[in-house]
Design brief:
With 319 residues, the protein is an alpha+beta fold. Among the domains are: 97-278, Transferase(Phosphotransferase) domain 1 (Transferase(Phosphotransferase), domain 1, Orthogonal Bundle), CATH 1.10.510.10; 285-319. It has helices spanning 46-64, 96-103, 108-127, 156-167, 179-182, 189-205, 215-224, 239-248, 260-278, 285-318, and strands at residues 4-5, 8-16, 21-27, 32-38, 74-80, 83-89, 93-95, 140-143, 148-150.
Length: 319
């Protein structure tokens, strides 16, 4: 294992990403523990490597300007012996992907808490003109205490660029890609909405909405087919969430939520409705009215008794 990357002292390897290795390291200048993600460029030609590095620093700097509680913070960019790397905050938690592998289905309440935070982080990034382009469970960190953070802002796009440049075709699993992505069309913030809806579907139903034996089969379904409602696979899913997922997964970007703020608002409304029902406040209207009448009757009885007691006391004093 390498000992240093730039000024950072490597402590241990903590994971492998699609682009390289992730290390835990120490920044000696400010005595801070960070995560270092290396960028493997060995599969690129010299010309591709040069273009990639220029794009990488531009995109990573854009991601580094984002400062939000639901986005992983980028501390630094660097290069060591021809290997670009990015230093970011080290987090204690698990990837959403690992949570889903362990539990398959998350409770609806927990699912809403996670996706609301994802939508909040996306709204902030989109307001700053940055589209993630690779929202999926492996890029979502769930920390101790329930905080959720989106990883790889600014470099997810570079991973996609490298795959397309090197091989001239779509590689890997397109399960969470939008129709415009698999069709190589223009991408904006509404693509992130589609990917978030796909992830929400997976969390609610236990399976991705579009599956197939190969990349082409999956891509065809993403562009042309409608998945079954999540509630048909999980009876705990309320109709409101079926509607939210369906809107996120609209084939035409114009039919989706136009921004993550709209998505967040509907998710919060659904969450509040579920909480009311669970706490017994979202009751049968007849029951609520009956309880109101009982409260009024009790109040009238108390007033009447008070008046009777007052009159008795007054008569006693007069005698």
């Amino acid at each position: 294992m390498i000992q240093y990357l730039g000024r950072y002292k490597i402590i241990k390897e903590i994971g492998h990403g699609s682009m390289g290795i992730v290390y835990e390291a120490k920044d000696p200048l400010i005595d801070r523990i960070v995560a270092i993600k290396t960028i493997n460029l060995q599969d690129l030609t010299p010309e591709e490597k040069k273009e990639y590095e220029a794009r990488f620093y531009l995109e990573a700097r854009s991601g580094g300007r984002l400062s939000h509680p639901n986005i992983v913070t980028i501390h630094d960019l660097g290069e060591s012996e021809g290997m670009p790397f990015i230093a970011m905050e080290l987090m204690e938690g698990r990837e959403l992907q690992n949570l889903l592998k362990a539990e398959k289905l998350l409770p609806v309440k927990e699912t809403l808490n996670i996706v609301i935070q994802v939508a909040t982080g996306l709204a902030y990034a989109h307001e700053h003109g940055i589209v993630h382009r690779d929202i999926k469970p492996s890029n979502i960190m769930v920390l101790k205490g329930g905080r959720v953070k989106i990883a790889d802002f600014g470099i997810a796009r570079m991973d996609s660029w490298r795959l397309n440049t090197t091989h001239g075709k779509l590689l890997g699993s397109p399960h969470y890609m939008s129709p415009e992505q698999v069709s190589s069309g223009p991408v904006d913030q509404r693509s992130d909405i589609f990917s978030t809806g796909t992830m929400l579907y997976r969390m609610l139903s236990g399976q991705v909405p579009f599956s197939g034996d190969n990349t082409h089969a999956i891509s065809y379904k993403i562009v042309n087919e409608e998945p079954p409602k999540p509630s048909s696979l999980n009876p705990e899913v309320p109709p409101a969430l079926d509607s939210i997922v369906a809107k996120c997964l609209s084939k035409n970007p114009n039919d989706r939520y136009q921004n993550a703020i709209e998505l967040e608002e509907d998710l919060r409304a659904c969450q509040e409705k579920l909480m009311l029902g669970k706490n017994g406040q979202d009751q049968n209207p007849v029951m609520v009215i009956s309880q109101s009448k009982m409260s009024i009757l009790k109040f009238v009885i108390i007033i009447a008794l008070s008046l009777i007691i007052f009159e008795l006391i007054e008569e006693f004093l007069l005698d």
